[in-house]
Write a structure and sequence with these properties.
This protein is an alpha+beta fold. Among the domains are: 101 residues, Immunoglobulin-like, CATH 2.60.40.1930; 82 residues, Sandwich (Immunoglobulin-like), CATH 2.60.40.60; 124 residues, Sandwich (Immunoglobulin-like). It is built from nine helices and 27 strands. Helix 2 packs parallel to helix 8. The chain is elongated and about 145 Å long.
Length: 569
């Protein structure tokens, strides 16, 4: 329907139609098929409620006319056969659409579960496409040779009949001052005439039959037929109001009001919001429902519908991938007798555990007292991902330039990294990642004599230059270079003379020096009077690793490992 002054209810139906046609352009997944089924069920309920409401209106019209006739006023007596004529034309087409829905659910097409009554083959394409378009979809100038042509002609034929019926029976001068004889646009538009289809779209040159039913899943066709039932009942409602305008104010009873919710999706990643459309199946411009519920409710400007968003809560048990979350809503509708009808919605949706993707130089383990830089992402949340990271027995330092990067500095034997997201004003727990915390690999001690690595097996000149280096583990250095720095407190030169204990003859202070580059000392004149064969020792006092915070952590080397011997020649 493309009329400018549409009712709020018809605007809602049109919105659903646009969502439906947009979904048809996507790859059909199980979730989309479920969305079609949910949408079709909601439209079916809405059409039934509107049909009931129209029946009440027609009964009210006939009762009012009968009351006028009983008082001798036969001016509006012809409104009873006119009302019956309108109801018959609409109900004939309504029954035809119901019959087509029944065909779609028959054994030759979708089939129904005998217990639940749900369509079994929701994604069936070929059989129902042949039914609607025919085997030769090029026949009749691309309209095919199936049931779709008949559907097109019936729907638009009903619109032609409605416009002619309204104009023939209700001229503006014959109605009340507030009534306007409507002109209804066609329900089915050829793509070339449809403003909702861009001019450069490939479907612009196709026919309505091809564009509507080609490669569409069966469950989408059923939802489309339910939408057409709403369209014709909406036209019928407007025409009944036109009849009613001849009588002035007509009161009618409402047997039931139905609260409808149409979820956007039944499966939501934790951290995002579940969204559902709330509306009353029977609506009126004079009745403004009041909406409330367990989530954030935003009421449509028309006041007749609302969107409710509920945060999908995380926190999953071990090995649990999905869980159900309940939601509820209350729609309060004023009634003609001054009371309020309270319509409750209670339903559930599925919360899916989003995958936490972690990348770092060392994903398996964390190094103790080191700045383990980790990228923590939850792709399913997209731009809504706003990480909140904590870790047990650890310091967590957020990166200043990238919100997904964190530095974890553990101090215990295990660190549990807790991943949450502050999304839509709520902190939603997503997952816990357990890490084993290990000490960094020990460096090796290397001695150079006259710039060459010394293996300890040959005598050295008495005036040699000696260098002591602390060499980091290569993999550790590549992963965490800021944590793979080392210092020595001092290096002592000791000489064994005669039978006595070795004595100190020189000492070099290593504090503040980069031991990975080396701490040097020269034998110089310290051994000038010692004969060849004299045994010397280089004794390192303490070895420290310097982490990314410039904190010194002592490495565990015993004295024997810190003492290196040589023989002079």
């Amino acid at each position: 329907m493309a009329e400018k002054n549409l009712s709020p209810r018809q605007k809602m139906i049109n919105m659903m139609y646009l969502v439906l046609t947009a979904l048809l352009a996507l790859n059909v997944s199980a979730e989309i098929l479920t969305a079609f089924e949910t949408l079709g069920d909601s439209l079916k309920t809405s059409a039934a409620a509107l049909s009931s409401k129209n029946g009440d209106t027609s009964e009210g019209i006939k009762a009012k006319v009968a009351d006028e006739v009983s008082q001798g006023n036969k001016k509006n007596e012809n409104l009873i056969p006119l009302t019956d004529e309108l109801l018959k034309a609409t109900n004939d087409l309504y029954s035809y659409l119901d019959k087509q829905i029944e065909v779609m659910g028959g054994p030759a097409f979708g089939g129904k579960d005998p217990v639940t009554g749900r369509i079994l083959k929701r994604d069936e394409v070929n059989s129902n496409m042949n039914y609607w378009i025919g085997v030769n979809d090029l026949a009749n100038k691309g309209r095919g040779s199936g049931e779709a042509m008949k559907l097109f002609d019936k729907l638009n034929g009903y619109i032609d009949w409605s416009n002619q019926w309204a104009q023939a029976n209700f001229k503006s001068s014959d109605t009340s001052s507030n009534a306007v004889v409507p002109t209804f646009p066609y329900i089915c538009l050829q793509p070339k005439d449809d403003p909702n289809i861009p001019n450069n779209a490939p479907s612009k040159s196709k026919t309505w039959e091809y564009n509507t039913f080609h490669q569409a899943p069966l469950i989408a066709n059923i939802a489309m037929l339910q939408k057409y039932k709403n369209d014709i009942k909406s036209v019928e409602s407007d025409l009944l109001n036109l009849v009613k305008s001849k009588l002035g104010q007509v009161t009618f009873k409402i047997d039931s009001l139905i609260a409808i919710d149409a979820p956007t999706s039944l499966i939501v990643p934790a951290g995002l919001e579940f969204e559902t459309k709330l509306f009353v199946a029977m609506s009126s411009k004079d009745v403004k429902p009041k909406f409330s519920g367990s989530g954030r409710v935003t009421v449509d400007p028309t006041g007749n519908s609302a969107v409710m968003k509920v945060a999908a809560i995380g926190g999953f048990d071990a090995k649990q991938k999905e869980k159900e979350q309940s939601y509820s809503a209350l729609i309060e509708v004023p009634k003609a007798d001054g009371t309020t009808a309270k319509l409750k919605v209670d339903n559930k949706f599925t919360v899916r555990k989003p995958e936490v993707v972690i990348t770092s130089a060392s994903v398996q383990n964390l190094y103790r007292s080191c700045g383990n830089k980790i990228n923590i992402d939850v792709p399913a949340l997209g731009d809504l991902y706003n990480p909140v990271i904590t870790a047990s027995s650890s310091e967590v330092i957020p990166d200043k330039s990238d919100r997904k990067v964190f530095t974890i500095v553990p101090s215990g034997k295990e660190s549990v990294v807790s991943v949450s997201s502050n999304t839509n004003g709520q902190t939603i727990k997503i997952d816990d990642i357990k890490y084993k915390v290990i000490p960094p690999p020990r460096p090796s001690i290397q001695v150079l004599v006259n710039s060459k690595v010394y293996d300890g097996s040959t005598p050295i000149p008495k005036k040699s230059d000696m260098t002591v280096k602390i060499v980091p583990d290569a993999d550790f250095l590549a992963a965490l270079p800021a944590d793979a720095r080392y210092q020595l407190s001092s290096v002592k030169l000791r000489v064994a003379r005669g039978l006595g204990a070795p004595v100190n003859v020189d000492e070099v202070n290593g504090s503040g020096k980069d031991a990975s580059k080396g701490v040097s000392l020269s034998l110089g004149t310290a051994l000038i009077n010692d004969p060849p064969g004299t045994k010397i020792y280089l004794e390192i006092d303490n070895i420290y690793r310097v982490n990314f915070k410039n904190q010194k952590i002592e490495e565990s080397f015993i004295l024997a490992e810190r003492t290196l011997g040589a023989v002079v020649k």
